[in-house]
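thought: user wants a sequence for this fold. calling inverse folding tool.
action: design(structure=
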């Protein structure tokens, strides 16, 4: 008989729980300059509701997520334990753009070359030597290296060949639901690590050269003045303040072990592995493959319906007082 996992089995004592938490130390007084840089007062803490930033979950589609999980043998940057943000190093980025260029040569330039070559044979009376020379030059110096670069990239991505040694990921930050900690990295080394409720979220606006306001969302540790904050606006390409507030709501929901994880496509495979989420899904009869059962058209329609529903809902849940609303630390 399989043992049923409980929240006590999965979560550490340090996790964030919006219903049972210790009061935080008072927020230190900040100077005018710091307030200007951080955009004034932070966004409120709340017991997060179910709203999610639609702009964040538009891509990848469920079909793309399933394909990516298959290619990565189930490995993902976001599951029931943690969300990890990172990127390729500069050499990896160069290699990525090089493979994209090579793919374009093989899929777009090669057919054009064949058509031009055949036209030259039939209409320009090219000699055998001319044809062989053209094939040799373009084949050896253009199509062969492009095919090898693109082919190796595809094969390594599917696990048939090892990834190039310089394709190293650079970790930026991690949100751990199972431990309740937020970790910031620099040059793949841990820069700092603190409990989630010790951070404040700031929505910062700044005008462009054209006078148009642009927005950023930063998570800042309340008790240390680190020069590196956690850029939450990277979760979405949206510049709407409402969507950025929903990002903060989604993160609070994900970290809050008293609530199920946010209902977004990327977390669907992990829902059954998180005890709080699994219990909520069973109680509310949520389909285990709600997102993954959709084709692309159904997914687009579901997003439109979700967007319409959330238009009249608050971007965040009811506010909580981190400093006086919990138990004595």
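)
observation: tool returned 329 residues.
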């Amino acid at each position: 008989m399989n043992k049923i996992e409980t929240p006590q089995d999965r979560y550490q004592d340090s996790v964030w729980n919006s219903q049972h938490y210790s009061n935080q130390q008072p927020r230190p007084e900040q100077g005018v300059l710091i307030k200007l840089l951080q955009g004034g007062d932070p966004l409120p803490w709340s017991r997060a509701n179910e709203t999610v930033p639609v702009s964040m979950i538009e891509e990848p589609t469920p079909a793309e997520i399933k394909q990516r999980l298959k290619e990565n043998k189930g490995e993902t940057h976001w599951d029931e334990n943690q969300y990890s943000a990172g990127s390729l190093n500069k050499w990896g980025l160069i290699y990525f753009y090089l493979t994209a260029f090579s793919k374009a040569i093989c899929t777009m330039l090669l057919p054009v070359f064949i058509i031009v070559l055949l036209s030259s044979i039939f209409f320009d009376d090219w000699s055998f030597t001319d044809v062989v020379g053209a094939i040799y030059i373009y084949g050896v110096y253009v199509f062969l290296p492009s095919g090898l670069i693109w082919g190796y990239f595809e094969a390594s991505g599917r696990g048939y060949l090892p990834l190039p040694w310089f394709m190293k990921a650079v970790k930026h930050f991690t949100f751990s639901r199972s431990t309740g900690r937020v970790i910031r990295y620099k040059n793949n080394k841990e820069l700092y690590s603190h409990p989630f409720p010790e951070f404040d979220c700031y929505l910062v606006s700044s005008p462009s050269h054209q006078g148009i306001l642009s927005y950023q969302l930063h998570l800042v540790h309340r008790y240390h003045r680190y020069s590196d904050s956690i850029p939450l606006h990277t979760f979405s390409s949206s510049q709407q303040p409402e969507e950025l507030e929903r990002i903060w709501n989604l993160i609070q929901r994900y970290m809050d072990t008293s609530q199920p994880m946010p209902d977004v496509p990327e977390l669907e495979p992990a829902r059954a592995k998180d005890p709080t989420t699994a219990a909520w899904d069973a109680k509310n009869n949520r389909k285990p493959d709600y997102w993954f059962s959709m084709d692309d058209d159904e997914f687009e329609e579901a997003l439109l319906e979700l967007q319409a529903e959330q238009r009249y809902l608050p971007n965040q849940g009811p506010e909580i007082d981190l400093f006086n609303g919990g138990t004595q630390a």
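thought: summarizing for user.
answer: Here is the designed sequence. The first strand starts at residue 82 and ends at 88.
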